[in-house]
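agent> fetching stored inputs for the iron/sulfur cluster docking request
agent> found them:
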Amino acid sequence: MNKPIDIPIKVVNAMSGASQSVGACGAPAEMASAARGAGKTETLNQYAADYPKGPHDQPQSMCPAFGSLRVGLRMRRTATILSGSACCVYGLTFTSHFYGARRSVGYVPFNSETLVTGKLFEDIRESVHAQADPGKYDAIVIINLCVPTASGVPLQLLPKEINGVRVIGIDVPGFGVPTHAEAKDVLAGAMLKFAREEIMAGPVQAPKNRVTDKPTITLLGEMFPADPVGIGMMLAPMGLAAGPVVPTREWRELYTALDCAAVAAIHPFYTASIREFDAAGRKVVGSAPVGVEGTEGWLQTIGVAAGVAQEKIDAAKNAMLPAIKGALSKMPIKGRISMSGYEGSELLVARLLVESGADVRYVGTACPRTQWSDSDREWLEAKGVHVQFRASLEQDLDAMNEFQPDLAIGTTPVVQAAKQASIPALYFTNLISARPLMGPAGAGSLAQVINAAIANKSRFDQMEAFFNDVGAGDTAGVWEELPKAHPEFRDMTRRQLAKMQKARKAEEMG
Ligand code: SF4
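agent> prediction call returned; pasting tokens
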């Protein structure tokens, strides 16, 4: 066992209470200032620059750390360990298994004492040493959640490598990283940085699954598995091939990702990852090959970025655009659509919908505006679509109420509100981003699900007519008799609350 070292841990006030559950979910400003006081200023400043907030502080979505956890769990030969409050870890583990993680999530528990004395860091170090088996792992990822970040648990002091297993420690607090989408970038960026430094230090192992000798285009952002294949077909006439998708599925793919002709920022919010590609001297191109205009523009910019001759770029366009045009005209979408999500591909989906003939009025995304989403934003705005970055739930709901769409595509609460209002709705994450978007395949597949959903409107009307107000508001639930309203109880509670508030104010002033 290594000798304990002096570590600059400060305990956040939240821990002095009975509960460990106070985190970014409850008191983000206090947590952030505690973290700054505990030596995490540099990390938080970098996050503030990479993931700008506003117009409001933080979109309402799941715990951001889920993004990093998911990236770690999807990587082969990688162990992922969480350090945080038990309730946060329970929620994150539950969600990761709900989304099909076939791996255990590591956890280093703590209590007030281990946090106060710095023993938590020693426990983390011990657990990393115990896990570092090069026969099983290429890398171990340790994620500091809110309380350990706010307390300054210094993961940067962990060894960079143990027995040849890389150790990647990251802070992913809800008070520093606004969305789970951006948390994917935190880990992907940290891994790219590590891999780039390895490359700079000397020869690295060749990726096992490199199947092409052609120059490759690295694809940035998680996408439907058929999309990289489709993109590869579009690139072939230019003498290019699709490279790995970042976040990668194994360590050595990081080397191939860095060793590319250019990077396609299909999801435009991977700021930390792009910083690493910049440092490696790689050009980065925004947008994606969606629809006819999107594909034409994308092939052009990718071809130019990769130094391809114009006639080859034209050959790629001629090979692909007629097929996309054909697919779009065969499967038109008729209807008004409002859309929102937190995956980062919302603008691309909206482009495809517009090109399919849909009347799209609003696109909300929880992700921030970046220079790599500019071309999609400009294209959509020119078609009269309102694009809202860092959209809040309220903005998404307002847009739906304002535009009264035939179909609302959105996050769970938006879909729920739409269905309550008898508006057909589709959940973005499970039903839209889980199908191909690019090229001819994307054009056909999206139209199918959208048209089927819009055609369901009459069923919503029938259900509304049948159930009327049953189960709405106070009468929701299962009752044996018709519920009776008791306004006098409400008045009583209101009076009691006002009295308590008055007493509290008097106490504060006295
Ligand atoms: S780790 Fe996630 S769930 Fe826990 S307090 Fe922070 S934001 Fe909330």
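agent> quick read of the result: The pocket of iron/sulfur cluster is lined by residues 23-25, 63, 65, 84-85, 88, 91, 145-146, 173-174 (CB under 6 Å).
agent> awaiting further instructions
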